[in-house]
Amino acid sequence: MAFKEYRLGAAMVGGALGLSMTITIFMPSFDLRSAVSTKMALEKQLSAGFDIGFGYADPLLLGINRPITVDLETDPKTGAKLDPPVRAYVYKAGVPMPPNIRHPHDLGKGVQDLSESQGQISTVSGSNHSKGSQEGVVFTLALGEFNGEELTYIENASVTKGWTPDATLAAAGDKNTHLISKGKTEFVVQGCWWCHTLLPEQTQDWQAFGAPPYLGDFNGENPTAFGSDRKAPDILHVASRNSSREWMMMHFFNPRLVQVNSIMPRFDYLWGDKDAQGNTIDFDKWRAEYKEYSEGKRTYPPEVPDYAPDSEIRALIDWVLSLK
Ligand code: HEC
Question: Is the CB of 70 within 6 Å of ligand 1?
Answer without folding.
Answer: no
